[in-house]
Write a structure and sequence with these properties.
Order of helices and strands: HEEEEEEEEHHHHEHHH
Strand content: 15-25%
Largest sheet: 4 strands, antiparallel
Oligomer: single chain
Number of helices: 8
Structural class: alpha+beta
């Protein structure tokens, strides 16, 4: 019985020692993933930054760890009113893309708080937007002629957030709007400008249309005149040929009587067109002789 009790106590001690060693070992291992910085702290001070993914070691129970984001973050900013170069007010709704470049500064200046960081970001970005847009006319902003507005705002910020351990990657504007009091006037001016442009296009189109119509009319007239001249020439040639045929026919005694006969029939036919026609002929006329069969 005593031997069994001694064996049990020894086993319990061994298990306890193993558990203590496991606890110490686990407390001394730090696992860092690719989306975070791991800060190793000792007595409230950062003694090491682990920025590569994988396991590492620290002093158990003496050193602690703190995780800081290493990925890019997006923060929406409150819409704000700014005044343009020509003293017009515009409402800007924007967001900022940022990351932590120095986790130690981020911890010491902002207490590793994203909320505190976004407050600082909002102030810095607003000041940059105000500076850039105060040097730009409202009309250029509305019409989109200042296509690099976001890039200019980002460039203007520069290293203003370096002391907080933050790097601003980009400032983007979601919407550039007008206060309600200004919208109607601006819209009417835009409509007027577009109407003027449309009127210019219409006038130019009508001018080009008239040029085409005039050229077409001239071409048609020339073509018709040429066709009529050719027709007259053909008609004259035909009449000349006709007269030549008649002349040849009348000059030939064998054919002259036949042509006289045919022409007399044609004349009779023409005179009998219509209804209730009566023809009175001289008995010595060629037609009378034709009808009597004595021709």
């Amino acid at each position: 019985m005593n031997v069994f009790a001694k064996y049990t106590v020894r086993t319990i001690k061994t298990i306890a020692i193993i558990l203590i060693l496991l606890i110490v070992l686990l407390n001394g291992v730090v696992t860092t993933n690719a989306r975070e910085y791991k800060l190793i702290t000792q007595f409230g001070q950062v003694v090491r930054i682990q920025d590569q993914p994988g396991p590492s070691l620290k002093i158990p129970f003496v050193q602690g760890t703190l995780s800081i984001p290493k990925y890019k973050m997006i923060s929406d900013l409150y819409p704000s009113d700014v005044t343009t170069k020509d003293k017009k007010v515009m409402t800007v709704d924007s967001f900022v893309i940022w990351e932590i470049s120095d986790p130690v500064k981020y911890l010491s200046s902002l207490n590793a708080s994203k909320e505190n960081a976004e407050i600082r970001l909002g102030n810095v970005v607003y000041n940059s937007i105000k500076t850039v847009m105060s040097a730009t006319d409202q009309q250029d902003i509305i019409s989109g002629r200042n296509g690099e507005l976001a890039a200019t705002i980002t460039e203007n910020i520069g290293g203003a957030m370096d002391s907080y351990g933050i790097r601003i990657l980009s400032v983007e504007t979601k919407k550039l709007d007008l206060p309600d009091s200004n919208k109607e006037a601006v819209y009417q001016r835009m409509i007027s400008e577009r109407n003027n442009i449309a009127a210019g296009y219409k006038a130019d189109g009508e001018y080009q249309s008239n040029l085409i119509k005039n050229e077409t009319d001239r071409t048609v007239k020339e073509t018709i005149a040429k066709a009529e001249a050719e027709a007259e020439q053909i008609k004259a040639a035909g009449e000349a040929q006709y007269m030549q045929i008649l002349s040849d026919a009348y000059n030939d005694e064998a054919k002259a009587d036949f042509y006289n006969y045919v022409r007399s029939l044609d004349a009779l036919k023409a005179s009998l067109k219509g209804e209730n026609k009566t023809v009175i002929l001289d008995g010595d006329s060629e037609l009378a002789r034709i009808l009597e069969g004595s021709w």
